[in-house]
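From: lab user (bench 3)
To: helpdesk
Subject: output format question, protein + guanosine-5'-diphosphate

Hello, I'm new to running complex predictions and I'm not sure whether the block I got back is the full result or only part of it. Here's what I submitted:
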Amino acid sequence: MFKEFIFNTINDSIDFDYASYIASMYDITLELKAEKSAEEIIAETFEDDGLEDNTKRPPIVTVMGHVDHGKTSLLDAIRNTRVTSGEAGGITQHIGAYTVQINGESITFIDTPGHAAFTSMRARGAKITDVAIIVVAADDGVMPQTIEAINHAKAADVSIIVAMNKMDKSDINPDRVKQQLAEHGLLVEEWGGDIILVPVSAKTGMGINNLLEAVLLVTEIKELKANPKKRAMGSVLEAKLDKGRGPVATVLVLNGTLSVGDNVIAGFATGKIRAMFDDKGKRVKQAGPSTPVEVLGFSEVPQAGDFVHAADEKLVKKAAEERKDKVKIESAKQSTSMNLNDLFGKISEGNLKNLNLIIKTDVLGSLEALRSSLEKISNDEVKVSSIHGGVGAINETDIMLARASNAIVIGFNVRADSNAKVVAEKEGVDIRLYNVIYDAVDDVTKAMKGMLAPKYRETIVGSIEVREVFKISGVGAVAGAYVTSGKAVRNGKVRVYRNDVCVYDGNILALKRFKDDVKEVASGYECGVSVENYNDIKVGDIFEIYQMEEIEQ
Ligand code: GDP
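Helpdesk reply: Thanks, we reran it on our side. This is the complete output you should expect:
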Protein backbone atom coordinates (compact mmCIF):
# COMPACT_ATOMS: atom_id res chain seq x y z
CA MET A 1 0.00 0.00 0.00
CA PHE A 2 2.86 2.29 0.84
CA LYS A 3 4.38 1.72 -2.61
CA GLU A 4 1.04 2.62 -4.12
CA PHE A 5 0.97 5.84 -2.10
CA ILE A 6 -1.85 4.66 0.11
CA PHE A 7 -0.77 5.83 3.53
CA ASN A 8 -2.49 3.94 6.28
CA THR A 9 -1.60 2.73 9.72
CA ILE A 10 -2.31 -0.74 10.97
CA ASN A 11 -5.50 0.40 12.71
CA ASP A 12 -7.11 2.00 9.65
CA SER A 13 -9.80 0.38 7.59
CA ILE A 14 -9.54 0.35 3.82
CA ASP A 15 -12.38 -0.15 1.42
CA PHE A 16 -12.94 -3.17 -0.75
CA ASP A 17 -11.67 -1.55 -3.96
CA TYR A 18 -8.28 -0.76 -2.48
CA ALA A 19 -8.03 -4.17 -0.88
CA SER A 20 -8.79 -6.01 -4.11
CA TYR A 21 -6.40 -3.77 -6.01
CA ILE A 22 -3.54 -4.62 -3.67
CA ALA A 23 -4.52 -8.29 -3.62
CA SER A 24 -4.52 -8.43 -7.42
CA MET A 25 -0.79 -7.58 -7.37
CA TYR A 26 -0.27 -10.87 -5.58
CA ASP A 27 -2.59 -12.68 -8.03
CA ILE A 28 -5.25 -13.02 -5.41
CA THR A 29 -8.87 -12.40 -6.32
CA LEU A 30 -10.91 -10.98 -3.48
CA GLU A 31 -14.60 -11.72 -3.17
CA LEU A 32 -16.94 -9.44 -1.27
CA LYS A 33 -19.35 -11.14 1.07
CA ALA A 34 -21.52 -8.37 2.42
CA GLU A 35 -22.76 -8.83 5.92
CA LYS A 36 -26.46 -9.61 5.97
CA SER A 37 -28.75 -7.18 7.67
CA ALA A 38 -30.78 -8.41 10.62
CA GLU A 39 -33.88 -7.78 8.54
CA GLU A 40 -32.60 -10.13 5.84
CA ILE A 41 -31.73 -12.83 8.34
CA ILE A 42 -35.19 -12.62 9.88
CA ALA A 43 -36.85 -12.67 6.47
CA GLU A 44 -34.87 -15.77 5.49
CA THR A 45 -36.14 -17.68 8.51
CA PHE A 46 -39.64 -17.16 7.25
CA GLU A 47 -39.02 -18.24 3.69
CA ASP A 48 -40.74 -21.46 2.72
CA ASP A 49 -38.26 -24.20 3.54
CA GLY A 50 -39.94 -27.20 1.96
CA LEU A 51 -43.37 -28.53 2.58
CA GLU A 52 -42.80 -31.54 4.79
CA ASP A 53 -43.70 -29.78 8.01
CA ASN A 54 -46.51 -27.76 6.50
CA THR A 55 -49.95 -28.57 7.76
CA LYS A 56 -53.40 -27.27 7.04
CA ARG A 57 -54.25 -23.98 8.72
CA PRO A 58 -57.69 -22.46 9.38
CA PRO A 59 -58.98 -19.90 6.87
CA ILE A 60 -59.09 -16.23 7.91
CA VAL A 61 -62.31 -14.41 7.13
CA THR A 62 -63.34 -10.75 7.00
CA VAL A 63 -66.96 -9.53 6.96
CA MET A 64 -67.84 -6.50 4.84
CA GLY A 65 -70.97 -4.80 3.50
CA HIS A 66 -73.26 -1.78 3.64
CA VAL A 67 -73.98 -0.12 6.96
CA ASP A 68 -76.89 -1.70 8.87
CA HIS A 69 -76.96 -4.78 6.67
CA GLY A 70 -75.94 -6.82 9.71
CA LYS A 71 -72.15 -7.23 9.73
CA THR A 72 -71.84 -6.85 13.50
CA SER A 73 -74.93 -8.97 14.16
CA LEU A 74 -73.61 -11.70 11.90
CA LEU A 75 -70.20 -11.73 13.59
CA ASP A 76 -71.96 -11.93 16.97
CA ALA A 77 -74.28 -14.68 15.80
CA ILE A 78 -71.40 -16.77 14.47
CA ARG A 79 -69.46 -16.28 17.67
CA ASN A 80 -72.38 -17.19 19.90
CA THR A 81 -73.56 -20.28 18.05
CA ARG A 82 -70.21 -21.84 17.38
CA VAL A 83 -68.11 -21.22 20.43
CA THR A 84 -67.26 -24.50 22.13
CA SER A 85 -69.58 -24.70 25.07
CA GLY A 86 -68.17 -25.36 28.54
CA GLU A 87 -65.33 -22.91 28.16
CA ALA A 88 -65.79 -20.15 30.71
CA GLY A 89 -69.45 -19.95 29.79
CA GLY A 90 -68.46 -19.80 26.14
CA ILE A 91 -68.21 -16.06 26.22
CA THR A 92 -65.62 -14.58 23.92
CA GLN A 93 -63.64 -11.47 24.68
CA HIS A 94 -63.45 -8.83 22.05
CA ILE A 95 -59.83 -8.97 20.99
CA GLY A 96 -60.24 -8.17 17.30
CA ALA A 97 -60.62 -11.74 16.06
CA TYR A 98 -62.00 -15.08 17.16
CA THR A 99 -61.95 -18.71 16.11
CA VAL A 100 -64.96 -20.98 15.74
CA GLN A 101 -65.28 -24.72 15.15
CA ILE A 102 -67.41 -26.47 12.56
CA ASN A 103 -67.28 -30.11 11.42
CA GLY A 104 -64.04 -30.55 13.34
CA GLU A 105 -62.35 -27.64 11.57
CA SER A 106 -61.56 -24.10 12.68
CA ILE A 107 -62.31 -20.78 11.02
CA THR A 108 -60.88 -17.47 12.20
CA PHE A 109 -62.99 -14.33 11.87
CA ILE A 110 -61.56 -10.85 12.00
CA ASP A 111 -63.90 -8.99 14.27
CA THR A 112 -63.46 -5.48 12.85
CA PRO A 113 -66.13 -5.39 10.18
CA GLY A 114 -65.94 -3.17 7.16
CA HIS A 115 -63.82 -2.65 4.14
CA ALA A 116 -62.21 0.51 5.50
CA ALA A 117 -60.36 -1.43 8.18
CA PHE A 118 -59.63 -4.20 5.71
CA THR A 119 -58.11 -1.87 3.16
CA SER A 120 -56.13 0.23 5.59
CA MET A 121 -54.50 -3.01 6.76
CA ARG A 122 -53.83 -3.96 3.16
CA ALA A 123 -52.39 -0.51 2.47
CA ARG A 124 -49.83 -1.28 5.16
CA GLY A 125 -48.91 -4.49 3.37
CA ALA A 126 -50.83 -6.94 5.54
CA LYS A 127 -52.58 -9.44 3.30
CA ILE A 128 -54.13 -11.64 5.88
CA THR A 129 -57.65 -12.40 4.68
CA ASP A 130 -58.44 -15.54 2.71
CA VAL A 131 -62.19 -15.00 2.35
CA ALA A 132 -64.38 -11.90 2.33
CA ILE A 133 -68.00 -12.43 3.33
CA ILE A 134 -70.06 -9.69 1.74
CA VAL A 135 -73.23 -9.12 3.75
CA VAL A 136 -76.25 -7.91 1.78
CA ALA A 137 -79.59 -7.36 3.49
CA ALA A 138 -82.23 -9.23 1.50
CA ASP A 139 -84.73 -6.41 1.96
CA ASP A 140 -82.42 -3.55 1.07
CA GLY A 141 -80.35 -5.09 -1.70
CA VAL A 142 -76.99 -3.95 -3.05
CA MET A 143 -76.12 -0.46 -1.76
CA PRO A 144 -73.16 1.88 -2.37
CA GLN A 145 -71.00 0.41 0.38
CA THR A 146 -71.83 -3.10 -0.84
CA ILE A 147 -70.31 -2.10 -4.17
CA GLU A 148 -67.32 -0.61 -2.40
CA ALA A 149 -66.89 -3.80 -0.41
CA ILE A 150 -67.07 -5.90 -3.60
CA ASN A 151 -64.45 -3.75 -5.27
CA HIS A 152 -62.18 -3.73 -2.24
CA ALA A 153 -62.40 -7.54 -2.03
CA LYS A 154 -61.74 -7.91 -5.76
CA ALA A 155 -58.75 -5.56 -5.57
CA ALA A 156 -57.33 -7.70 -2.76
CA ASP A 157 -57.88 -10.85 -4.78
CA VAL A 158 -59.62 -12.79 -2.01
CA SER A 159 -62.43 -15.35 -2.34
CA ILE A 160 -65.87 -13.83 -2.04
CA ILE A 161 -68.92 -15.37 -0.42
CA VAL A 162 -72.21 -13.50 -0.23
CA ALA A 163 -74.28 -13.74 2.94
CA MET A 164 -77.82 -12.65 2.10
CA ASN A 165 -78.92 -11.50 5.54
CA LYS A 166 -82.23 -10.67 7.25
CA MET A 167 -83.99 -13.63 5.57
CA ASP A 168 -86.41 -13.70 8.54
CA LYS A 169 -88.01 -10.48 7.36
CA SER A 170 -91.16 -10.46 5.24
CA ASP A 171 -90.36 -7.72 2.73
CA ILE A 172 -87.33 -9.40 1.18
CA ASN A 173 -86.48 -9.76 -2.49
CA PRO A 174 -83.74 -12.38 -3.00
CA ASP A 175 -83.94 -12.36 -6.80
CA ARG A 176 -83.33 -8.65 -6.91
CA VAL A 177 -80.22 -9.11 -4.74
CA LYS A 178 -78.89 -11.77 -7.14
CA GLN A 179 -79.67 -9.55 -10.11
CA GLN A 180 -77.87 -6.57 -8.54
CA LEU A 181 -74.87 -8.73 -7.63
CA ALA A 182 -74.70 -9.93 -11.23
CA GLU A 183 -74.64 -6.31 -12.36
CA HIS A 184 -71.52 -5.87 -10.26
CA GLY A 185 -69.75 -8.91 -11.56
CA LEU A 186 -70.78 -11.46 -8.93
CA LEU A 187 -72.77 -14.18 -10.66
CA VAL A 188 -74.22 -16.64 -8.14
CA GLU A 189 -73.94 -20.40 -8.63
CA GLU A 190 -77.66 -20.81 -9.09
CA TRP A 191 -77.37 -18.60 -12.17
CA GLY A 192 -74.35 -20.36 -13.59
CA GLY A 193 -71.65 -18.33 -11.85
CA ASP A 194 -69.13 -19.33 -9.23
CA ILE A 195 -70.16 -17.13 -6.32
CA ILE A 196 -71.66 -18.95 -3.36
CA LEU A 197 -74.62 -17.09 -1.91
CA VAL A 198 -75.88 -18.22 1.48
CA PRO A 199 -79.24 -16.98 2.80
CA VAL A 200 -78.85 -16.24 6.51
CA SER A 201 -80.50 -14.49 9.40
CA ALA A 202 -78.25 -13.08 12.06
CA LYS A 203 -81.37 -12.64 14.17
CA THR A 204 -82.64 -16.24 14.18
CA GLY A 205 -79.36 -17.98 13.46
CA MET A 206 -80.72 -19.48 10.26
CA GLY A 207 -78.08 -20.43 7.68
CA ILE A 208 -75.07 -19.67 9.88
CA ASN A 209 -73.82 -23.25 9.66
CA ASN A 210 -74.25 -23.23 5.88
CA LEU A 211 -72.23 -20.03 5.73
CA LEU A 212 -69.39 -21.59 7.72
CA GLU A 213 -69.50 -24.70 5.56
CA ALA A 214 -69.29 -22.46 2.50
CA VAL A 215 -66.12 -20.89 3.92
CA LEU A 216 -64.58 -24.36 4.30
CA LEU A 217 -65.67 -25.21 0.76
CA VAL A 218 -64.09 -22.22 -0.95
CA THR A 219 -60.89 -22.50 1.06
CA GLU A 220 -60.45 -26.24 0.60
CA ILE A 221 -59.21 -25.77 -2.95
CA LYS A 222 -56.82 -23.06 -1.79
CA GLU A 223 -54.95 -25.59 0.36
CA LEU A 224 -54.06 -23.10 3.07
CA LYS A 225 -50.92 -24.33 4.78
CA ALA A 226 -48.56 -23.22 7.50
CA ASN A 227 -45.73 -24.69 9.52
CA PRO A 228 -46.43 -24.75 13.26
CA LYS A 229 -42.85 -25.86 13.99
CA LYS A 230 -41.36 -22.56 12.84
CA ARG A 231 -40.93 -19.38 14.74
CA ALA A 232 -44.00 -17.23 14.49
CA MET A 233 -44.84 -14.46 12.11
CA GLY A 234 -48.16 -12.67 12.23
CA SER A 235 -49.98 -9.42 11.92
CA VAL A 236 -51.12 -6.86 14.50
CA LEU A 237 -54.92 -6.52 14.32
CA GLU A 238 -55.38 -4.06 17.17
CA ALA A 239 -53.11 -2.44 19.71
CA LYS A 240 -53.59 -0.11 22.63
CA LEU A 241 -51.95 1.14 25.76
CA ASP A 242 -53.62 -0.38 28.80
CA LYS A 243 -53.19 1.54 32.05
CA GLY A 244 -52.41 -1.51 34.13
CA ARG A 245 -50.92 -3.90 31.61
CA GLY A 246 -48.90 -1.61 29.33
CA PRO A 247 -48.94 -2.07 25.55
CA VAL A 248 -51.49 -4.73 24.55
CA ALA A 249 -51.64 -6.05 20.99
CA THR A 250 -53.92 -8.54 19.30
CA VAL A 251 -51.73 -10.60 17.05
CA LEU A 252 -53.06 -12.96 14.43
CA VAL A 253 -50.45 -15.65 13.94
CA LEU A 254 -50.10 -16.31 10.22
CA ASN A 255 -47.34 -18.89 10.29
CA GLY A 256 -45.34 -20.72 12.91
CA THR A 257 -46.08 -20.84 16.62
CA LEU A 258 -45.86 -17.87 18.94
CA SER A 259 -44.80 -18.72 22.49
CA VAL A 260 -44.56 -16.89 25.79
CA GLY A 261 -40.93 -15.83 26.20
CA ASP A 262 -40.42 -15.18 22.46
CA ASN A 263 -38.61 -12.02 21.44
CA VAL A 264 -40.71 -10.18 18.91
CA ILE A 265 -40.58 -7.17 16.63
CA ALA A 266 -43.56 -5.35 15.08
CA GLY A 267 -42.75 -2.18 13.18
CA PHE A 268 -40.49 -0.29 15.58
CA ALA A 269 -41.91 -1.97 18.66
CA THR A 270 -39.93 -4.80 20.19
CA GLY A 271 -40.38 -6.90 23.29
CA LYS A 272 -40.38 -10.25 25.00
CA ILE A 273 -43.79 -11.88 25.32
CA ARG A 274 -44.83 -11.85 28.97
CA ALA A 275 -48.27 -13.37 28.65
CA MET A 276 -50.81 -14.33 26.01
CA PHE A 277 -54.61 -14.68 26.14
CA ASP A 278 -56.89 -16.36 23.64
CA ASP A 279 -60.25 -15.06 22.37
CA LYS A 280 -61.98 -16.42 25.45
CA GLY A 281 -59.68 -14.52 27.78
CA LYS A 282 -57.90 -17.73 28.76
CA ARG A 283 -54.15 -17.58 29.42
CA VAL A 284 -52.25 -19.58 26.79
CA LYS A 285 -48.59 -20.44 26.41
CA GLN A 286 -48.60 -20.95 22.65
CA ALA A 287 -50.56 -19.87 19.58
CA GLY A 288 -50.34 -21.67 16.23
CA PRO A 289 -51.20 -20.60 12.67
CA SER A 290 -54.42 -18.57 12.18
CA THR A 291 -54.85 -18.13 15.93
CA PRO A 292 -55.59 -14.68 17.33
CA VAL A 293 -54.01 -13.89 20.70
CA GLU A 294 -53.72 -10.91 22.94
CA VAL A 295 -50.05 -10.31 23.63
CA LEU A 296 -48.42 -8.51 26.56
CA GLY A 297 -44.78 -7.56 26.63
CA PHE A 298 -44.22 -5.06 23.84
CA SER A 299 -42.07 -2.12 24.88
CA GLU A 300 -44.27 0.30 22.94
CA VAL A 301 -47.63 0.07 21.17
CA PRO A 302 -47.26 -1.38 17.66
CA GLN A 303 -49.59 -0.25 14.87
CA ALA A 304 -52.49 -2.22 13.44
CA GLY A 305 -51.28 -3.80 10.21
CA ASP A 306 -47.68 -4.17 11.36
CA PHE A 307 -46.11 -7.54 10.79
CA VAL A 308 -44.86 -9.37 13.85
CA HIS A 309 -41.78 -11.58 13.72
CA ALA A 310 -40.29 -13.70 16.46
CA ALA A 311 -36.49 -13.96 16.44
CA ASP A 312 -33.40 -13.98 18.66
CA GLU A 313 -33.17 -11.06 21.00
CA LYS A 314 -30.05 -9.65 19.33
CA LEU A 315 -31.59 -9.86 15.86
CA VAL A 316 -34.76 -8.19 17.06
CA LYS A 317 -32.81 -5.29 18.54
CA LYS A 318 -30.65 -4.91 15.46
CA ALA A 319 -33.63 -5.09 13.10
CA ALA A 320 -35.39 -2.36 15.09
CA GLU A 321 -32.32 -0.11 14.69
CA GLU A 322 -32.18 -0.86 10.97
CA ARG A 323 -35.84 0.01 10.54
CA LYS A 324 -35.42 3.33 12.28
CA ASP A 325 -32.44 4.17 10.07
CA LYS A 326 -34.34 3.14 6.97
CA VAL A 327 -37.25 5.41 7.78
CA LYS A 328 -34.86 8.32 8.14
CA ILE A 329 -33.45 7.66 4.69
CA GLU A 330 -36.83 7.04 3.10
CA SER A 331 -38.55 10.04 4.55
CA ALA A 332 -35.90 12.05 2.78
CA LYS A 333 -36.90 10.45 -0.49
CA GLN A 334 -40.10 11.19 -2.41
CA SER A 335 -43.23 9.13 -1.97
CA THR A 336 -43.49 6.18 -4.32
CA SER A 337 -47.24 6.47 -4.77
CA MET A 338 -48.76 6.59 -8.20
CA ASN A 339 -48.83 10.02 -9.73
CA LEU A 340 -50.00 11.08 -13.15
CA ASN A 341 -46.91 13.25 -13.53
CA ASP A 342 -44.42 10.43 -13.35
CA LEU A 343 -46.58 7.85 -15.07
CA PHE A 344 -44.61 7.99 -18.29
CA GLY A 345 -41.33 7.46 -16.46
CA LYS A 346 -42.69 4.33 -14.80
CA ILE A 347 -44.08 3.04 -18.10
CA SER A 348 -40.83 3.59 -19.98
CA GLU A 349 -38.84 1.89 -17.25
CA GLY A 350 -41.17 -1.05 -17.76
CA ASN A 351 -42.31 -0.82 -14.16
CA LEU A 352 -45.94 -0.31 -14.91
CA LYS A 353 -48.32 -2.65 -16.68
CA ASN A 354 -51.58 -1.59 -15.07
CA LEU A 355 -52.89 1.89 -14.42
CA ASN A 356 -55.53 1.59 -11.70
CA LEU A 357 -58.14 4.29 -11.36
CA ILE A 358 -60.77 5.08 -8.77
CA ILE A 359 -63.53 7.20 -10.26
CA LYS A 360 -66.03 9.25 -8.27
CA THR A 361 -68.73 11.24 -10.05
CA ASP A 362 -71.85 13.29 -9.38
CA VAL A 363 -74.26 11.00 -11.22
CA LEU A 364 -74.25 7.37 -12.32
CA GLY A 365 -74.49 8.27 -16.00
CA SER A 366 -71.19 10.14 -16.03
CA LEU A 367 -69.54 7.34 -14.04
CA GLU A 368 -70.28 4.84 -16.78
CA ALA A 369 -69.26 7.26 -19.52
CA LEU A 370 -66.00 8.17 -17.83
CA ARG A 371 -65.16 4.60 -16.95
CA SER A 372 -65.58 3.32 -20.48
CA SER A 373 -63.73 6.24 -22.10
CA LEU A 374 -60.82 5.91 -19.68
CA GLU A 375 -60.53 2.15 -19.99
CA LYS A 376 -60.41 2.56 -23.77
CA ILE A 377 -57.11 4.43 -23.44
CA SER A 378 -55.42 1.09 -22.66
CA ASN A 379 -52.67 0.27 -25.10
CA ASP A 380 -50.32 -2.67 -25.65
CA GLU A 381 -48.08 -1.61 -22.80
CA VAL A 382 -50.48 -0.43 -20.16
CA LYS A 383 -53.94 -1.57 -19.23
CA VAL A 384 -56.11 1.16 -17.74
CA SER A 385 -58.65 -0.28 -15.32
CA SER A 386 -61.15 1.31 -13.03
CA ILE A 387 -60.97 -0.74 -9.84
CA HIS A 388 -63.67 1.21 -8.06
CA GLY A 389 -66.28 3.72 -9.06
CA GLY A 390 -69.03 5.44 -7.17
CA VAL A 391 -71.26 8.44 -6.86
CA GLY A 392 -70.43 11.10 -4.28
CA ALA A 393 -67.47 12.98 -2.85
CA ILE A 394 -64.04 11.37 -2.71
CA ASN A 395 -63.67 10.01 0.82
CA GLU A 396 -60.96 8.58 3.01
CA THR A 397 -61.63 4.95 2.10
CA ASP A 398 -61.22 5.83 -1.60
CA ILE A 399 -57.79 7.18 -0.73
CA MET A 400 -56.86 4.12 1.30
CA LEU A 401 -57.95 1.87 -1.54
CA ALA A 402 -55.90 4.00 -3.94
CA ARG A 403 -52.87 3.71 -1.66
CA ALA A 404 -53.28 -0.04 -1.34
CA SER A 405 -53.82 -0.60 -5.06
CA ASN A 406 -51.48 2.07 -6.35
CA ALA A 407 -54.33 3.89 -8.03
CA ILE A 408 -55.02 7.46 -9.09
CA VAL A 409 -58.29 9.00 -7.91
CA ILE A 410 -60.37 10.82 -10.50
CA GLY A 411 -63.24 13.06 -9.40
CA PHE A 412 -65.80 14.28 -11.89
CA ASN A 413 -67.98 17.18 -10.74
CA VAL A 414 -67.27 16.14 -7.17
CA ARG A 415 -64.80 17.28 -4.58
CA ALA A 416 -62.63 15.44 -2.11
CA ASP A 417 -63.86 15.77 1.47
CA SER A 418 -61.48 17.34 3.96
CA ASN A 419 -60.42 14.01 5.51
CA ALA A 420 -59.66 12.59 2.10
CA LYS A 421 -57.48 15.60 1.29
CA VAL A 422 -55.48 15.22 4.47
CA VAL A 423 -54.98 11.50 4.01
CA ALA A 424 -54.15 11.88 0.31
CA GLU A 425 -51.51 14.44 1.15
CA LYS A 426 -50.01 12.18 3.81
CA GLU A 427 -50.10 9.03 1.70
CA GLY A 428 -49.03 10.77 -1.49
CA VAL A 429 -52.15 9.76 -3.42
CA ASP A 430 -52.82 11.73 -6.60
CA ILE A 431 -56.35 13.19 -6.82
CA ARG A 432 -57.44 14.75 -10.11
CA LEU A 433 -60.66 16.74 -10.38
CA TYR A 434 -62.43 17.41 -13.67
CA ASN A 435 -65.69 18.78 -14.98
CA VAL A 436 -65.24 17.87 -18.61
CA ILE A 437 -64.89 14.17 -19.49
CA TYR A 438 -62.67 15.03 -22.42
CA ASP A 439 -60.16 16.75 -20.11
CA ALA A 440 -59.86 13.67 -17.92
CA VAL A 441 -59.36 11.40 -20.92
CA ASP A 442 -56.90 13.86 -22.42
CA ASP A 443 -54.83 14.11 -19.23
CA VAL A 444 -54.57 10.36 -18.77
CA THR A 445 -53.72 9.87 -22.45
CA LYS A 446 -51.05 12.54 -22.30
CA ALA A 447 -49.67 11.25 -19.01
CA MET A 448 -49.23 7.82 -20.58
CA LYS A 449 -47.28 9.40 -23.41
CA GLY A 450 -45.26 11.58 -21.05
CA MET A 451 -46.73 14.78 -22.42
CA LEU A 452 -48.63 16.07 -19.43
CA ALA A 453 -48.28 19.80 -19.06
CA PRO A 454 -47.02 20.99 -15.69
CA LYS A 455 -49.61 21.59 -13.00
CA TYR A 456 -50.44 25.17 -12.06
CA ARG A 457 -51.96 26.59 -8.96
CA GLU A 458 -53.91 29.81 -8.98
CA THR A 459 -53.28 32.41 -6.28
CA ILE A 460 -55.46 35.47 -5.98
CA VAL A 461 -53.22 38.41 -5.16
CA GLY A 462 -55.64 41.29 -4.97
CA SER A 463 -58.75 43.09 -6.02
CA ILE A 464 -59.17 46.58 -7.51
CA GLU A 465 -62.16 48.74 -8.33
CA VAL A 466 -62.42 50.86 -11.48
CA ARG A 467 -63.28 54.50 -10.59
CA GLU A 468 -62.65 56.20 -13.93
CA VAL A 469 -61.94 55.17 -17.51
CA PHE A 470 -59.57 57.09 -19.80
CA LYS A 471 -59.56 56.42 -23.54
CA ILE A 472 -56.04 57.18 -24.75
CA SER A 473 -55.42 57.12 -28.46
CA GLY A 474 -52.84 54.56 -29.49
CA VAL A 475 -53.04 52.87 -26.11
CA GLY A 476 -56.73 52.08 -25.59
CA ALA A 477 -58.69 52.13 -22.38
CA VAL A 478 -56.89 52.72 -19.10
CA ALA A 479 -58.68 52.24 -15.81
CA GLY A 480 -58.14 54.71 -13.01
CA ALA A 481 -58.57 52.29 -10.16
CA TYR A 482 -58.27 51.81 -6.41
CA VAL A 483 -56.71 48.72 -4.83
CA THR A 484 -59.34 47.49 -2.37
CA SER A 485 -57.55 44.39 -1.11
CA GLY A 486 -54.23 42.59 -1.52
CA LYS A 487 -52.18 44.28 -4.19
CA ALA A 488 -52.07 44.87 -7.93
CA VAL A 489 -49.12 43.30 -9.72
CA ARG A 490 -47.73 44.11 -13.15
CA ASN A 491 -47.05 40.49 -14.17
CA GLY A 492 -50.43 39.23 -12.99
CA LYS A 493 -53.47 37.98 -14.76
CA VAL A 494 -56.83 39.66 -14.40
CA ARG A 495 -60.48 38.70 -14.40
CA VAL A 496 -62.90 41.54 -15.07
CA TYR A 497 -66.14 41.23 -13.09
CA ARG A 498 -69.20 43.29 -13.89
CA ASN A 499 -72.14 42.76 -11.50
CA ASP A 500 -70.43 39.57 -10.26
CA VAL A 501 -70.22 38.10 -13.75
CA CYS A 502 -66.81 37.48 -15.25
CA VAL A 503 -66.79 39.35 -18.58
CA TYR A 504 -63.12 39.00 -19.46
CA ASP A 505 -60.11 36.98 -18.41
CA GLY A 506 -56.66 38.01 -19.59
CA ASN A 507 -53.33 39.61 -18.78
CA ILE A 508 -52.45 42.96 -17.29
CA LEU A 509 -50.78 45.09 -19.97
CA ALA A 510 -49.54 48.00 -17.87
CA LEU A 511 -49.60 49.12 -14.26
CA LYS A 512 -48.83 52.72 -13.35
CA ARG A 513 -48.61 54.97 -10.28
CA PHE A 514 -49.14 58.48 -11.70
CA LYS A 515 -46.85 58.50 -14.76
CA ASP A 516 -44.45 55.76 -13.71
CA ASP A 517 -44.56 52.09 -14.60
CA VAL A 518 -44.49 50.09 -11.38
CA LYS A 519 -44.25 46.42 -10.47
CA GLU A 520 -46.95 46.54 -7.84
CA VAL A 521 -49.37 48.79 -6.02
CA ALA A 522 -50.46 48.07 -2.47
CA SER A 523 -53.94 48.04 -0.98
CA GLY A 524 -55.37 51.50 -0.29
CA TYR A 525 -53.59 53.21 -3.21
CA GLU A 526 -54.74 54.38 -6.60
CA CYS A 527 -53.27 53.12 -9.84
CA GLY A 528 -53.71 53.05 -13.60
CA VAL A 529 -54.31 49.68 -15.22
CA SER A 530 -54.75 48.54 -18.80
CA VAL A 531 -55.75 45.05 -19.83
CA GLU A 532 -54.23 43.26 -22.79
CA ASN A 533 -56.63 43.10 -25.79
CA TYR A 534 -59.53 44.52 -23.79
CA ASN A 535 -60.82 48.07 -24.03
CA ASP A 536 -64.40 47.67 -22.91
CA ILE A 537 -63.63 48.67 -19.32
CA LYS A 538 -66.49 50.34 -17.40
CA VAL A 539 -66.64 52.37 -14.18
CA GLY A 540 -67.59 50.04 -11.32
CA ASP A 541 -65.83 46.98 -12.80
CA ILE A 542 -63.95 44.87 -10.27
CA PHE A 543 -60.61 43.49 -11.40
CA GLU A 544 -59.53 40.33 -9.64
CA ILE A 545 -55.76 40.00 -10.00
CA TYR A 546 -54.31 36.51 -9.85
CA GLN A 547 -51.16 34.62 -10.66
CA MET A 548 -50.54 31.11 -11.93
CA GLU A 549 -47.66 29.37 -10.22
CA GLU A 550 -46.23 26.14 -11.50
CA ILE A 551 -46.40 23.54 -8.75
CA GLU A 552 -43.05 21.94 -8.16
CA GLN A 553 -43.23 18.21 -8.74
P1 GDP B 1 -73.84 -3.34 10.55
O1 GDP B 1 -73.92 -1.86 10.49
O2 GDP B 1 -73.70 -3.94 9.18
O3 GDP B 1 -72.84 -3.88 11.51
O4 GDP B 1 -75.28 -3.84 11.02
P2 GDP B 1 -75.79 -4.32 12.45
O5 GDP B 1 -75.27 -5.67 12.75
O6 GDP B 1 -75.52 -3.24 13.43
O7 GDP B 1 -77.33 -4.46 12.17
C1 GDP B 1 -78.14 -3.37 11.80
C2 GDP B 1 -79.57 -3.59 12.21
O8 GDP B 1 -80.13 -4.70 11.52
C3 GDP B 1 -79.71 -3.89 13.70
O9 GDP B 1 -80.84 -3.21 14.18
C4 GDP B 1 -79.90 -5.40 13.74
O10 GDP B 1 -80.68 -5.78 14.83
C5 GDP B 1 -80.64 -5.63 12.44
N1 GDP B 1 -80.39 -6.99 11.91
C6 GDP B 1 -79.19 -7.55 11.67
N2 GDP B 1 -79.33 -8.78 11.17
C7 GDP B 1 -80.66 -9.03 11.12
C8 GDP B 1 -81.45 -10.15 10.68
O11 GDP B 1 -80.95 -11.19 10.25
N3 GDP B 1 -82.80 -9.99 10.73
C9 GDP B 1 -83.37 -8.87 11.19
N4 GDP B 1 -84.69 -8.81 11.20
N5 GDP B 1 -82.66 -7.80 11.61
C10 GDP B 1 -81.33 -7.87 11.57
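A quick orientation on your result: Confidence is low (pLDDT under 50) at residues 85-89. Let us know if anything else is unclear.
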